[in-house]
Amino acid sequence: MKILILTQTFPLSPTDSTAHFMYDFARGFTELGHNVSVVLPYHPKLQQKSSNHLQFFPFRYVFPNSLHLLGFGNTLKNDQDLQWFVYLLAPFYVLAGLIATYHLVKNEKIDIINAHWILPNGFIAALVSIITGIPLVITLPGSDVYIAKKNIFFAWMAHFALFRAQKVVSNSQQLLDDLGVKGSVISYGVPENKGKRPTHKHVSIATAGRIVEKKGFDLVKKIYPETEIISGLLISEFRKKLLSVDIFIACSIRDSKGNLDDGSLTILEAMSAGCCVIATDLPGNRNIIQDGYNGLLIKPNQANMLKKLVKKLRNSSTLRQQLETHARNIIQEKFTPKHIARMYFSLFSDAL
């Protein structure tokens, strides 16, 4: 099958940890023997190289190149407010993305389009789908749902895209509910972390991600100031670092502006490394964690429960070992890129 993935973010290089889940997602299909074309906005630092089954098609939408500011984590400030330049550049982005996607669909004889982030990519892909008749599957990762509810125009664009899509996917049932749409819940995937966990006497605590409100770092640092926030590492360094973490806390919340962090990839990465994960009891996290078996869940902002669970894990090496083993097993069984690609392929087949 020839699959076109339309995205607005991607790791700028093979070692970049930013949005590395998109690389793993695309790679899952190539491991199954499918051909993947990734359409994404141009970025001056983009260094990804095409191969036989995975090709990259960056599109330019403005001149000079230094004004290519959209995507790659730059669109939202603190994951809450659109940057001022978005409104100026977005029309050019949509037009250039539409042209690039249309030509690729025609030239490469694409079988299906998978757009990640409903705005603007779902809207662009919906127009191409109407023109070409190629089926469309839209994936909702998170902040796009928040943006779609900011004003009437964005809401119209989102619902136009949803009306055209044959299938809708999200890593969180809550995000589907927020947008008022029925769809399938499929997480992104992470590769098995086969690194050996080092032996040490102390019990280390960490969390990870971008420093934004919805990650819930303030609560974690308030209770355990010694907690390390892992951020900005290369992907190989990040995965190696997680091997030395005993307790990984992911207290995601819906922030003060309404943006939600659910089904975070950092949880999957931590579980793959054998960390004992404590995560917020949200629908996307429940799709990954079976409470008490391969991780622990707490209600949002439950400081006392967080203290209790951390103390319990610190005092029981047996419990930590059990959670570590089960966490790694569930990644191997359900959440590798190849497993996720198989689930998506089933949806793609239904959409054709």
Structural notes for this entry:
With 352 residues, the protein is of the alpha/beta class. It folds into two domains: 204 residues, Glycogen Phosphorylase B (Rossmann fold); 130 residues, Glycogen Phosphorylase B (Rossmann fold), CATH 3.40.50.2000. The chain contains 13 helices and 14 strands. A seven-stranded parallel beta sheet has the order 3-2-1-6-7-8-9, with helices on both faces. Helix 3 packs across helix 5. The longest helix is centred in the N-terminal third of the chain and has 23 residues. It starts with a strand and ends with a helix. 43% of the residues are buried. The model has no long low-confidence stretch (mean pLDDT 95).
Task: Please outline what is shown here.
Helix content is 42%, strand content 16%. The chain contains 13 helices and 14 strands.
The overall strand count is 14
Q: Can you tell me the number of structural domains?
A: 2
Radius of gyration: 20 Å
Kindly report the average pLDDT value: 95
**N-to-C CA distance:** 11 Å
From the 3D structure, determine the CATH topology of the largest domain: Rossmann fold
Shape: globular
What's the CATH C level of the largest domain?
Alpha Beta
CATH architecture level-2 label of the largest domain: 3-Layer(aba) Sandwich
Q: What is the helix content?
A: 40-55%
Strands of the widest sheet, in order across it, are: 3-2-1-6-7-8-9
Order of helices and strands: EHEEEEHEHEHHEHEEHEHEHEHEHHH
Q: CATH homologous superfamily name of the largest domain?
A: Glycogen Phosphorylase B
- Main beta sheet, described? 7 strands, parallel
**How much of the polypeptide forms β-strand, as a percent range?**
15-25%
